[in-house]
């Protein structure tokens, strides 16, 4: 199996190392045909990227497209779920510029009033089985609402630090043509629900989630996991 695109990489615009251009160069060196810069939404605590800086990234990508014609460079974003209604932190002016929208749960977000029930119950789930059930239901509701409300290409690192009804997630992903990510940094969490996702016809991307240029396009862990879980190459969108 060969992976030809890496759609989830970070830069020094957030908490990662390296520039947008350095990520692009690394992707070329790794034999990638496509590279996505997918910075965190503005509501990510400490490392969120502002609307203004997101436009700067998009502008840089436009300039780099002329310089590196051998690779397709995508302006992506890793947005956060903000509340039970499935709202996400993508500024309106950014939406028309996005090539791919990636969305995931992150515990370290600036909490809005609508997020407090999710935050509270996930914190209390460590101490109470009843709260764990409530947290799972709220997490699932928020994720499903987000997928139904937005045109989401990929759910990032599913299962990472969040409990969710994987069967319900898989059903809505299949219906909405939203893929799940095999994350090379956190992909082991996927083991719990790959079989369910495959049964529902969900597709996958293998991404590096690189936080340093040297890790862009390094897909060994994701490929290993896909092989261990018997995920057919045909359902991994960025494989050949």
From TrEMBL:
Origin superkingdom: Bacteria
SUPFAM superfamilies: PHP domain-like
Domain Polymerase/histidinol phosphatase N-terminal per the UniProt entry, residue ranges: 5-83
InterPro entries (alphabetical): PHP_dom (IPR004013), PHP_phosphatase (IPR050243), Pol/His_phosphatase_N (IPR003141), Pol/histidinol_Pase-like (IPR016195)
GO cellular component, one term: cytosol
Gene Ontology MF terms in the entry: phosphoric ester hydrolase activity; zinc ion binding
TM stretches of this protein: none
Name of the protein in its database record: PHP domain-containing protein
Organism: Alkalicella caledoniensis
Classification of source organism: Bacteria, Bacillati, Bacillota, Clostridia, Eubacteriales
């Amino acid at each position: 199996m060969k992976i030809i695109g890496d759609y989830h990489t970070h830069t020094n615009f957030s908490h990662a190392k390296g520039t947008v251009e350095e990520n692009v160069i690394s992707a070329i060196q790794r034999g990638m045909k496509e590279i996505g810069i997918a910075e965190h939404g503005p509501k990510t605590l400490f490392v969120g990227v502002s609307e203004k800086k997101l436009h700067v990234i998009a502008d840089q990508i436009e300039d780099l497209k002329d310089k590196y014609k051998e690779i397709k460079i995508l302006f992506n974003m890793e947005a956060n779920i903000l509340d039970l209604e499935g709202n996400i932190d993508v500024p309106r002016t950014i939406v028309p510029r996005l090539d791919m929208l990636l969305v995931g749960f992150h515990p370290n977000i600036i909490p809005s009033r609508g997020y407090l029930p999710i935050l509270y119950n996930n914190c209390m789930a460590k101490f109470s089985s009843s709260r764990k059930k409530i947290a799972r239901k709220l997490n699932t509701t928020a994720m499903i609402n987000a997928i139904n409300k937005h045109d989401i290409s990929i759910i990032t690192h599913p299962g990472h630090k969040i409990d969710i009804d994987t069967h319900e997630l898989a059903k809505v992903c299949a219906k909405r043509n939203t893929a799940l990510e095999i994350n090379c940094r956190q992909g082991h969490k996927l083991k719990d629900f790959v079989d369910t996702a495959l049964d529902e016809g969900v597709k996958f991307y293998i991404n590096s989630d690189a936080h340093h240029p040297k890790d862009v396009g390094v897909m060994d862990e994701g490929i290993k996991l896909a092989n261990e879980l018997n995920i057919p190459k045909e359902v991994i969108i960025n494989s050949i």
